[in-house]
Structures are given as C-alpha cells and as structure tokens.
Amino acid sequence: MSSRGLRALLAAATLVLVALLVWYYLMGTPQYSLSRFAGAIHAHDAAAAERFVDVDRVAQAASDVIVAEYLRGNSKAGQALGQGAARSVAGQAVKSLVAARVRGELRRMAETGGQGPSVLVLPAGMIAAFSGLAVEHDAEGAWVIYTDPRRGQARFRMSQQPDRSWRITQLDPDWVRRHLKDGSSG
C-alpha cells in the first residue's frame, strides 16, 4: 500500500472515529433525550414518551409544592394535624392524583401529536432541541429552560440515567405554584 493510500485510509478512519465520538456525546445530552421524547409525542406513542418522564419523581416534587402551598394558606389544617403528619398524609394523597394527571397529559399529548393544548410543547428535531433549549447543569442533573410558543418560558429538571439517557424528574416549583393560583387545568 502506498503512503498516499495509507494516509487516505488513516484520514477516513479518523473521520469515522470523530463521528462516533460526537454521536456518543450527543446521545448523552438532555437535548437528545428531549428530541426523542418530542419524536415519540409526534409519533403518537405515549408509552415511548413516558420513558423520558419519571412520573413518580415529577408527582412527588409537584405534590410537595402543592401541599406546602395549601398548608401555607390554611394554617389551621397544618396546626390540627401537625406539620410533619399533615405533609406526609396530604402528600401521599396528592402524589397519586398528580401522577395520574401527568400520565393523562402524556397520553393527550401523544393523541394530538403534540399539537393540541397541553402543558408541555417541546421543539421537535435535533437541531431545534439544541438551538431552542438552554441547559444549566448542576450536581443533581440539569435544568432545561425553553420558550414555549404558547405559554412562554418553561423550566424543568432532568436527571441522567445509568444508560446515559435523561428523564424529566421535576417541574419548576414556581410554574407549579402559578398553575395552582391560575386554577389552570392544562
């Protein structure tokens, strides 16, 4: 093999290796998981979409905010049951309701392909996911911030899984509070 042929082969191998490394990196980003989540919604596949949402953790975090807001506004309820007991009992009751609401919202989003009125409208496609989302990493994962065309700025936490994919694990507590105050149903 000539020196020129060897250099061409080495250059091609280097390009393939670089492409594989870039792909491996991209697959481990929150944006890639959100792109797949949006793809599942647009494909009307609720089960696939739910793989990118840790419904139990989302429900737990949201129910903690809901119960804290309720107890803050209704001090008699907190005093009657004791803050710790009231939060625990109310939190478990609310968590199951919130989890059912999240699963229902995922089904509705999948039924409409992400086009109907919903709580979360994500940019579809890899380029849109990388250009339309701001990601702030921290010790617990990452906060994803984007501007929803219908509802304005939205923010939620994602956590990386052992397989390098990311799952939505928490909605912004301020967003949950605003939804409570607005009495919004979706």
In brief, what are we looking at here?
The chain is an alpha+beta fold. Helix 2 crosses helix 7.
Task: Please give a structural write-up.
With 186 residues, the protein is an alpha+beta fold. The protein has one domain (3-182). Helices cover 62% and strands 16% of the residues. It contains 8 helices and 4 strands. It has a 4-stranded antiparallel β-sheet. Strand 3 (152-160) and strand 4 form a beta hairpin. Helix 2 (30-42) packs across helix 7. The longest helix has 30 residues, at 83-112. The mean pLDDT is 83.
Annotate the secondary structure layout.
Blueprint: H1 3-27, H2 30-42, H3 46-50, H4 55-73, H5 75-81, H6 83-112, H7 126-132, E1 133-138, E2 141-148, E3 152-160, E4 166-171, H8 173-182
Antiparallel strand pairs: 1-2, 2-3, 3-4
Jot down its keywords.
8 helices, alpha+beta, 186 residues, 4 strands
Beta-strand residue percentage: 15-25%
Catalogue the unreliable spans: none
Largest sheet: 4 strands, antiparallel
Give the N-to-C terminal Cα separation. 66 Å
Quickly give the structural class.
Answer: alpha+beta
Number of domains: 1
Number of strands: 4
The helix content, as a percent range, equals 55-70%
Question: How much is the average pLDDT?
Answer: 83
From the alpha-carbon coordinates, what is the Rg to the nearest angstrom? 21 Å
**DSSP helical segment count:** 8
How would you write the strand order of the largest sheet?
1-2-3-4
What is the N-to-C succession of helices and strands? HHHHHHHEEEEH
Q: How would you sum up the global shape?
A: elongated
